[in-house]
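Methods, example record. To illustrate the input and output format used throughout this study, we show the complete record for Putative toxin 43. The sequence lines were provided to the predictor; the line carrying C-alpha cells was produced by it.
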Amino acid sequence: MSPHPNNPSPANNAVPGLVAADMFTPGRAGDRRVLVWEGTVAAPASPLPWHSSTPVEVFFHTGHGPATQALPQEFTRQLDRQLSALSLLSVQRLLEGIRTYRTQGRQPNSNTTRKARKNFMKDVMRELVDEYDFSEQDAADKRDEINDALVVLHESDQVTFGPSQPGMSVGGYPSVGYEPVNSSVGSQGKPMSRALEEAAQAVPAERRAGVRILIRAVLTDSPELAKQLRNGQAVLEPRSQAQRAAISPRAPPWTPGKVAADIANNTTPWQPPTSPQTGTPPSQTPDTQPRQQPDPAAPTPRPSPSASSPGWDPDKSAALRRASFPHPASAALRKPPPHNHTPAARPHTNPQQPHPELDR
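The corresponding predicted structure is encoded as:
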C-alpha cells in the first residue's frame, strides 16, 4: 500500500489541512478547494445496482476549531469507513434504519462491545511491553492516555443504520477512532440523513429492496461553506471523468500493533505521520495522488432493527462485507529502538472539551 499522504505544504497551493486520502480526491466548491468521495469508485462492490446514475451529495466540514481542523486525515479515514458501510445498504434497509433511529434513538454500547474495547487496549499494552520494551507501568500509562481519547465507531452511524452495536474490524477488534473527530462527524449526520431519506423516498417502493443509494461526499475545512452547500447557496464545480474516476490511498487499519507502534514513535494514531528526516509532514501535491485499489479494514454487520425484512439477508451481507472489505496487508511500520529510558512528559491527548456522545 502506498504511504498515506500527509498535509501538503503551502507551495502546493492547497487549503491548509485538506489532504487527498482514503478515496477522497481534490475538487472545488465556492471558489475553494474541497475533497470529494465518489461512490462510483470508492464504495465496495455489491450485487445491488445504484438507485440512479446521479449521486446524492452530502457535505461535511472538519470542525469549528483548530483541534479538529488539524486532523483532516482522521476525518477522511472515519468518513470513508462510514460511507463504505452505508453504501452496502439497500434503499429499503436505509429507510428502516433512519426511521427506527428517529423513534428509538441511540443504543448504548453492550457489555460485549465494552469488553472488546478493553481487550483491544490490553493488547496495545502487551505490544508495548513485548515489542518495545516498555515497563508495565509506562505501558499502562500510555494505554490509559490513548484510551481516554478514543471511541468505538459505528459504521454506518446509528442515525442511518438504526440502533445497533458497532461492528468489528481486522482481527475481530472493534473499529476505533479519535473522539473529537467522531463527535464532529456525528453532529453532521442529520443533514446527511435527511438528504439520503429524501432520495430513498423518491425510489419506487417496488425497487427499494433491490437498489442502493449512490453517494458523493464533499469535505471542506469551512463550516460556512458546508452550510452553503447544504442549502444550495454554493455548488460543487463540475468534475471531469478523470476526476470522478480518481482515487487515493486508504489508511492502514487501527490494530493494537499499529497503535503501539505509533506510541513507541512518540506520536498518536490520529496524528499524521512525519518524515523521519525532518520530523515534519512531507509534502504531496493533492492533484497527483497515486492510484490504488480500495483496501479498507473489514467492518462486519450488526443486527438490524428489522433483520427479517425484504432486501436484508444477514448471512449474505456478512459474506458481502468480507468480500468487499478484504483485510489489508500489514502496514509497514517503523519499529523504534527498545524503550530503555525514562519517557518524556507525555503530550496531552484528551479532548479539551467534553463531548456528550462518546460512542457513535
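Annotations derived from this record:
The two ends are 28 Å apart (CA to CA).
The chain is about 35% helix and 10% strand.
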